[in-house]
Design brief:
Blueprint (H helix, E strand, L loop, with lengths): L5 E2 L5 E9 L6 E6 L3 E7 L15 E9 L8 E4 L9 E2 L5 E2 L6 E3 L22 E7 L8 E9 L8 E5 L2 E8 L3 E8 L2 E8 L5 H9 L1 E2 L1
Parallel strand pairs: 1-7, 4-6
Antiparallel strand pairs: 1-2, 2-5, 3-4, 8-16, 9-10, 10-11, 11-15, 12-13, 13-14, 14-15
């Protein structure tokens, strides 16, 4: 398994970020279920017509899902290859934006705060998750993104300028090129909202952060 796992509110659908090259099909996520366990496997398939010497430089990233026959419940979830325990992030705890600028839509990949989550992905020590929204993806023009990352029990970063978002203490960082992030604590979670969009004004970013809700 390459990265964090998101579990749907009904406990049946599992999602994880993946990366692959032009030499491969998009990886597939599969689950082997028993009464007490769920074992996850990520299957990769290289194109059979390619020679072993073919250089595969172009990389892609996205999300893959699998649906279980029964909710995870109290069953132990593991990586079928390494045997390591997988603790999913419960989607019912996801923060969602009440407001996004025109043109933004849910993305089928992950752009994590602080970087663009370049593959390979790695699982966090705690079950965190990043939800990403993008503007003008693959449509030409100036693209932009907004991501919301949550980590239960995490400690919000305190770098940047201390601000207040709807009465809750937060910290704002602004970077060259229009990248901004705000971090705060909410109901036992560290929440980070980041935007990379040179067309987005500071006030608009703060509106997004203020209107995040669970």
């Amino acid at each position: 398994m390459p990265g964090d796992v998101l579990m749907s509110g009904d406990g049946r659908t599992l999602t994880t970020p993946v990366d692959w090259t032009d030499c491969e099909d998009k990886p597939q996520l599969a689950a082997e279920e028993t009464a007490h366990t769920v074992k996850l496997t990520l299957t990769r398939k290289r194109h059979s017509f390619l020679s072993r010497d073919t250089v595969c430089d172009d990389r892609h990233d996205g999300l893959v899902t699998t649906t279980l026959s029964e909710p995870v419940g109290n069953r132990k979830m593991t990586d079928a290859v390494t045997g390591s325990v997988v603790i999913p992030f419960d989607a019912s705890h996801l923060e969602r934006p009440r407001y996004l600028p025109p043109g933004y839509a849910p993305a089928d990949n992950v752009i994590a705060p602080g970087n663009r989550s370049d593959p390979p992905y790695t699982r966090a020590r705690t079950p965190s998750w990043t939800t990403t929204y993008q503007r003008n993806r693959d449509k030409g023009g100036q693209a932009g993104y907004v991501s919301i990352t949550e980590e239960p029990g995490g400690i919000p970063q305190t770098h940047g300028t201390a601000i207040s978002l709807n009465g809750r203490p937060a910290h704002l960082q602004e970077r060259p090129g229009g990248s901004r992030s705000a971090t705060w604590a909410d109901k036992g979670y560290a929440v980070t909202v980041e935007a990379g969009d040179p067309l987005m004004a500071r006030d608009e970013f703060l509106r997004i952060a203020e209107e995040i809700h669970r």
